[in-house]
């Protein structure tokens, strides 16, 4: 398959986006936060840290497996194939999706990504009501929503997340997309390293470690969001804490947008790279 002019345009836009990852410079506040975080974790024994992050990784693996094996996800896979057949009636499998054009694939991916951003918006609004159940369920709910959106974007671009390599890759894409901006370039390089040394479309041969203390900045931002919601939940209009609901909805929407944008850039890159080499 040869590249079209549109393929070249998307490839150039991905390269420009990648340059932005590498050119990002942390501000003074971020540097201060990093120093504080380093200092805080230096006081925690290494074996305790390892056990904690192993359990966190295990929780993400388990959640990923539950999502990709659910009936809801199987139904979504079938909807992707049905939509794809509207463009090309010869599409039969997930791998066949790579025969669609980049714009057709983006259209399908955006349908699912946009839907999950709306889910995040409503989840944030619910969290903004300030109830204990709402606040306590926010982090797990956001993990489910965004892991699922990454899986569906991967499927749209022809990657079957039920295989070990693609399952691990989807998890690493989710992890990379939730990292602080200053660390996302390194995470992109790690994904490229896995892609370059891949010698099988099925097995994964690389590091299975995902989280470390640098990743906790994202969950900590969610904790700050919960604090803001708690502070503003008493200010109500027509019986609703509209300010805290707006804070929750806005933060969750922006997080999901960041995750889906990163995920689609990665899978578009893989699609175009494969198409170029064929």
Kindly describe this structure.
The protein is mostly helical and about 280 residues long. The protein has one domain (about 5-20, about 70-230, about 240-275). The chain contains 10 helices and no strands. The longest helix has about 35 residues, at about 240-275. The chain is globular, with a radius of gyration of 20 Å.
Please give a handful of descriptors for the protein shown:
ABC transporter substrate-binding protein, mainly alpha, single chain, EcsC
Write the layout of secondary structure elements.
Blueprint: H1 5-23, H2 28-42, H3 46-68, H4 71-87, H5 102-127, H6 132-156, H7 164-177, H8 184-196, H9 217-232, H10 242-277
Mean pLDDT score, rounded? 86
The profile of the biggest β sheet is: none
Sketch the topology as an H/E string, one letter per element.
HHHHHHHHHH
Give the total of beta strands: 0
Proportion of residues in extended strands: under 5%
Short recap of the structure:
The protein has 278 residues and is mostly helical. Helix content is 73%, strand content 0%. The relative contact order is 0.15.
């Amino acid at each position: 398959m040869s590249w079209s002019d549109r393929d070249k345009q998307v490839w150039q836009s991905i390269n420009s986006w990648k340059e932005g990852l590498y050119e990002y410079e942390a501000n003074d506040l971020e540097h201060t936060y990093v120093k504080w975080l380093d200092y805080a974790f230096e006081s925690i024994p290494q074996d305790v840290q390892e056990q904690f992050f192993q359990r966190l990784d295990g929780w993400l693996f388990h959640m990923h497996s539950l999502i990709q094996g659910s009936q809801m996800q199987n139904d979504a896979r079938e909807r992707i194939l049905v939509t794809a057949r509207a463009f090309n009636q010869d599409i039969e499998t997930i791998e066949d999706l790579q025969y669609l054009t980049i714009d057709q694939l983006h259209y399908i991916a955006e349908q699912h990504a946009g839907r999950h951003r709306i889910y995040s918006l409503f989840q944030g609004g619910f969290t903004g009501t300030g109830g204990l159940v709402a606040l306590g369920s926010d982090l797990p709910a956001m993990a489910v929503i965004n892991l699922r959106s990454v899986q569906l974007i991967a499927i749209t671009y022809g990657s079957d997340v039920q295989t070990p390599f693609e399952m691990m890759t989807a998890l690493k894409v989710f992890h990379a997309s939730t990292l602080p901006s200053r660390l996302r370039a390194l995470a992109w390089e790690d994904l490229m390293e896995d892609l370059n040394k891949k010698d099988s479309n099925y097995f994964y041969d690389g590091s299975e470690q995902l989280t470390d203390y640098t990743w906790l900045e994202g969950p900590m931002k969610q904790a700050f969001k919960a604090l803001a919601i708690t502070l503003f939940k008493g200010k109500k209009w027509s019986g609703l804490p509209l300010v805290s609901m707006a804070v929750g909805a806005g933060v969750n929407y922006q997080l999901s947008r960041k995750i889906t944008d990163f995920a689609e850039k990665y899978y578009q890159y893989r699609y175009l790279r494969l198409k170029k080499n064929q």
